[in-house]
Amino acid sequence: MNETLLANKLGVAVAALVEQAEQACAPLAPSVAAALLWLQQWAPCTATELAPILGLTQPTAQRIVDGLIRDGLAARLPGSHGRAVPVRLTPKGNRTAKALQERRLSTYVQALAPFGTADRKVLHRLLDALLRPMVTGRRYARHVCRFCDHKLCDGPLCPVGCAATELERRAK
User: Fold this and answer.
1) Could you give the residue range(s) of every CATH 1.10.10.10 domain in the chain?
2) What kind and span of H or E run contains 101?
3) Residue ranges for the chain with pLDDT beneath 70
4) What is the pTM of this model?
């Protein structure tokens, strides 16, 4: 087997899937979409907490949070003052995040259409095996899973979270 050819095809598949996912997020920028999806599942959260998850600087994360607030998608927690305060999604933000997640997952479901049940089981196992050794810690896990629907992939079903937990356990 030609490993370089296989690696090249993997790279093309990743690039095509990223492009399709970005189209599913439109008109939102990927970082804004990631912020919405993260806040939907893990709010309240501050811009400072969001920055490493999104892979952005704190000022850029703050601009994203400010934009979400301006667009009525997020709100600062009641009783909080200033800019470095936790935010949560508004009902409009939750509806937007839900629709976004549905479009994102639909894109990937369509990508799986050519595969039968047996191939999907193999792919499921292979993806777990591919993801586990990539994890370098909890911070990386949060970043790489910033678009995930954590209700679907949680606990023992999440190879990324499990690998991060194992690394933390070994470090103790």
Assistant:
1) 1-111
2) helix 91-111
3) 80-83
4) 0.91
- CB atoms near residue 116 (< 10 Å): 7
Q: At what angle do helices 58-70 and 30-42 cross, to 10 degrees?
A: 80
Whether domain 1-111 has CATH 1.10.10.10: the reply is yes
Q: How far apart are CA 68 and CA 147, in angstroms?
A: 17
pLDDT digits (tens, 9 = 90+) for 23-64: 999 999 999 999 999 999 999 999 999 999 999 999 999 999
Q: Within 10 Å of residue 90's Cβ, how many Cβ atoms?
A: 16
Distance of CA 72 to the CA centre of its chain: 22
Helix (H) or strand (E) holding 96: helix 91-111
**Element of type H or E holding 139:** helix 138-144
Provide the phi-psi class of 155: left if phi over 0, else alpha when psi is between -120 and 50, else beta: left
> Could you tell me which of 37, 19, 7 has the C-alpha nearest to residue 150?
37
